């Protein structure tokens, strides 16, 4: 029993329960970190222990072999072509799916949920896995890469667009409906004008994403400049790899800049 | 002619929007429905073009019960009934003309409407109707560049382009200032007289109801509590309809500004 004459002073700024929860969480996180490190035998200190290796390897990338640049261009354009084809086709294909996964347009709950489910599955597959699958199906080359990028881009576009459609003002649709318009006319006259700028903007955004993605897809044999990187790394031809990396970097920055300027003008 | 026969509407959440309505509205009448918000005015008006579907009774438009209508029948019904909204409901990013030509959608095939292939007569009709509400000089302006009063006039032109037999107006002046409100009501009244279009307007302003209506229907809690010629109503009638004394907010005022 505490002495009633003794003055009560709170021992801490936080209740005991909060303190306990935080302590346990911290112990848990550190525990999982240690288990992961031990299991994978990778400790972050290695970064500092092996920094000598790193600098030595980086040194081998320099100076870039600029004479190699001439062989890069054709493959680089292949990458850009892949991105253009896949973004265009994905944008067109995504239109009906955007509408089918927008709650305010597809009022049939069963259809809406089914479409949402299918699109969610598509989106959970990483682009590189798609590329591996299609390279397996259609063989090494640009075509497999394009198919993988189309599916990857549809996943992104439909998600972004259906949310944009769900946020539109439904009053104009009501007016078109009240004047005797059918569903397609409602979509064309009341929905499309409201979402068109965003739709074009997302199309450009997907083009940017596809350029970056197609570089990675080349590593698994799906065409484009990534394939070149893969070959040169296997030949241990690091100065050439550096040339490719610098060129890709510059091109991606330029395309991103142009595309984001275009998008700014739209919305 | 529009006839409500024992018409009731219960919303899915159990609210009764309309309770056993029996009303006959004759061709060419200018009817104003008054009542506080939530009295069922909107539900009443939206039943006529089936934006809401009553759950019991019958609703006849030009002799046919419209409650069973689906698909094409429903679109044919709506084609002949124009509607004006409180928030104008124009497509902001489209031009005035494109908004007005949308009144022809019920008459135009999907393919033609998607490629904007309207017959010349339709475009002429749209332009004539813009002239009727004195806004033809804004032809190619984007709808969101217009003031509220101008937008409401465009929406009247859109409705006229439908060549309707009936015009429904759901609180058409609630978002407008007093002089503009009178201007919009004057256009509606003028169209009602000149084209003999049955016009049903929801309003909560007493003075406007008395000024423009041929006939006033009063609603409270989903029921019709008053129905009679506008000439016979006075403030006492409104106090009965509203179930409370009349306040300043029940008046729009501003008539003098328009006439001067």
From TrEMBL, chain A:
Residues 76-259 form the ABC transmembrane type-1 domain. PROSITE patterns: ABC_TM1. The keyword Transcription regulation does not apply. It comes from the Bacteria. GO terms for cellular component: plasma membrane. It is found in: Cell membrane. The chain crosses the membrane at residues 20-36, 43-62, 82-106, 127-158, 186-206, 213-229, 235-258. The keyword Phosphoprotein does not apply. GO terms for molecular function: ABC-type phosphonate transporter activity. Keywords: Cell membrane, Membrane, Transmembrane, Transmembrane helix, Transport. Signal peptide: none annotated. It is a multi-pass membrane protein. SUPFAM superfamilies: MetI-like (SSF161098). InterPro entries: MetI-like, MetI-like_sf, PhnE/PtxC. Belongs to the binding-protein-dependent transport system permease family. This is Phosphonate transport system permease protein. It comes from Paraliobacillus ryukyuensis.
TrEMBL record, chain B:
GO terms for cellular component: membrane. It comes from the Bacteria. PROSITE patterns: ABC_TRANSPORTER_1, ABC_TRANSPORTER_2. Keywords: ATP-binding, Cell membrane, Membrane, Nucleotide-binding, Phosphonate transport, Translocase, Transport. SUPFAM superfamilies: P-loop containing nucleoside triphosphate hydrolases (SSF52540). Residues 2-246 form the ABC transporter domain. Pfam families: ABC_tran. The keyword Transmembrane helix does not apply. GO terms for molecular function: ABC-type phosphonate transporter activity; ATP binding; ATP hydrolysis activity. This is Phosphonate transport system ATP-binding protein. It comes from Paraliobacillus ryukyuensis.
């Amino acid at each position: 029993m505490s002495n009633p004459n003794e003055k009560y002073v709170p021992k801490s700024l936080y209740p005991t329960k909060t303190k306990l929860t935080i302590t346990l969480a911290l112990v848990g996180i550190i525990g999982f970190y240690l288990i992961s490190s031990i299991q994978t035998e990778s400790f972050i200190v290695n970064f500092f222990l092996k920094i000598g290796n790193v600098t030595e390897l980086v040194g081998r990338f320099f100076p870039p072999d600029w004479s190699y640049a001439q062989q890069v261009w054709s493959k680089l354009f292949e990458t850009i072509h892949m991105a253009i084809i896949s973004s265009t086709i994905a944008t067109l294909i995504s239109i009906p799916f955007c509408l089918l996964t927008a709650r305010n347009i597809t009022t049939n709950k069963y259809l809406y949920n089914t479409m949402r489910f299918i699109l969610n599955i598509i989106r959970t597959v990483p682009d590189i896995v798609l590329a591996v699958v299609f390279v397996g199906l259609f063989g090494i080359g640009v075509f497999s890469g394009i198919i993988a990028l189309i599916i990857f881009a549809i996943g992104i576009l439909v998600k972004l667009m259906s949310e944009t459609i769900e946020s539109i003002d439904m009053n104009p649709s009501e007016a078109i409906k009240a004047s005797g318009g059918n569903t397609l006319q409602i979509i064309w006259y009341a929905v499309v004008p409201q979402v068109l700028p965003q739709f074009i903007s997302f199309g450009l955004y997907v083009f940017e994403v596809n350029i970056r993605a197609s570089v990675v897809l080349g590593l698994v044999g799906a065409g484009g400049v990534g394939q070149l990187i893969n070959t040169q790394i296997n030949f241990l031809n690091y100065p050439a790899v550096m040339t490719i990396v610098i060129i890709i970097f510059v091109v991606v920055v330029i395309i991103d800049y142009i595309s984001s300027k275009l998008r700014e003008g739209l919305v | 002619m529009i006839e409500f026969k024992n018409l009731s509407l219960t919303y899915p959440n159990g609210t009764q929007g309309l309770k056993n309505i029996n009303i006959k509205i004759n061709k060419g009448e200018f009817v104003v429905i008054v009542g506080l918000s939530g009295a069922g005015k909107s539900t009443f008006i939206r039943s006529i073009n089936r934006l809401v579907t009553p759950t019991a009774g019958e609703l006849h438009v030009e002799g046919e019960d419209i409650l069973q209508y689906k698909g094409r029948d429903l679109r044919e019904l709506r084609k002949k009934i124009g509607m004006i909204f409180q928030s104008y409901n124009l497509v902001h990013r489209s031009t005035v003309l494109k908004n007005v030509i949308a009144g022809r959608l019920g008459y135009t095939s999907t393919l033609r409407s998607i490629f904007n292939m309207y017959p010349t007569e339709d475009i002429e009709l749209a332009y004539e109707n813009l002239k009727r509400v004195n806004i033809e000089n804004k032809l190619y302006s984007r709808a969101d560049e217009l003031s509220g009063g101008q937008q409401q006039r465009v929406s009247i032109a859109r409705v006229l382009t439908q060549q309707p037999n009936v015009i429904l107006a759901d609180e058409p002046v609630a978002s407008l200032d007093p002089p503009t409100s009178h201007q919009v009501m004057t256009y509606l009244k003028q169209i009602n007289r000149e084209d003999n279009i049955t016009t049903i307007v929801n309003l909560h302003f007493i003075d406007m109801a008395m000024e423009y209506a041929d006939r006033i229907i009063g609603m409270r809690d989903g029921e019709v509590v008053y129905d009679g010629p506008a000439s016979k109503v006075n403030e006492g009638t409104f106090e009965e309809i509203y179930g409370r004394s009349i306040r300043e907010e029940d008046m729009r005022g501003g008539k003098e500004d328009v006439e001067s």
